[in-house]
Here is the input.
Amino acid sequence: MKIFNQIGILLGVWAAGEVVSQFIKNIINIPGSILGMIILFLLLQFKIISEEKIKDVADFLLGNMGIFFIPAGVSLIQSLGLIKENAILLLSCIILINIAVMIGSGISVEFMIKLKEKKQAKSQQEIA
Here is the structure.
């Protein structure tokens, strides 16, 4: 019975995301599943739902996540002709995006290190 309750909670949150998505689709088009994840995050963050109430089903779904990628893989196989036609464009996009992510990550890390050093220096000055 516990598993059914956990599935019910997750399905309810997903359904709430779908409902919210339908209400705001004229303003911004966000999929209901994404809104459901945001709602679930907020419910967990503000302790409205405790982690224990969905832990078993969430662990099962995370442990078997690979199964959910099978349809996407099949879809890619069906689109091999389209991928071959645009291989150079796809590869150049992948390379440029990876470079941009590496640069952005490096800049972010450097900024956080400098911020941490400033905080440490400030706290040492307050101690002295």
Summary: Residues 87-127 form the longest helix (41 residues). The chain has six helices and no strands.
